[in-house]
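Protein record
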Amino acid sequence: MEDDGGYPFRTPVSREIKKALRKAVGHFDSICETKSLKIYEEKLQDAVETWVCVIESLNDQQLGNEIVGYQKKLNFSKEVLKSMAGKSKHTFPVICLAILDRYIRNFDVKLAEPFFQLRDELLEEFNEMLGEDGIFLYPTYPDTAPYHMEMLFRPFNIGYSVIFNILGLPVTQCPMGLGDKGLPLGIQIVGGMNQDRVTMAAALELERVFGGWISPCDIRKSSITLTEVV
């Protein structure tokens, strides 16, 4: 599956990611007796909403209280300003997540029920489709590696990966070289329940053929002298 069909708040999957995905599919088609099947799972469009509802249900404590050790309430406005000045004890992404956490908890629980049902349906469909030896190839992220903090302004892009966390399915992220701008890109390999060995075997095969992770820049090795103590 090359993308989730598009979504107003998500970045379209880039040409480079789709190209890498097709290369992986082409390789497996050339060595496997069973040929690949391109699918479209419409339920994956609601990946972020489903993930948020399930994660929130697992934790009855507000994140804002957790990160300050329950000793006091977190002043969100103050922490945002302190973070922008580099003075906060908490990272900016965590502060944003705490704000989102408080906002979500104000919703009626009944609004989340359809997403729990969607989660269960997705899990059943994937397990039936993949069985004990099938793999699902899907973008890990819609574009090449983003800059630090860039994802804060495109939060819905995480839907491509977080949905499999709440499904409990094994996933192996597989590097597929560098894009046109010299930035790393990759795809994810999803397997059926408890079939971690299958996703890792598939990733190792792609690493063997396409070279695995490639550094986007020169890495200078520092000279370290070790003193043996007897």
The longest strand covers residues 171-178. The CA atoms of residues 83 and 92 lie 6 Å apart. The longest helix spans residues 113-130.
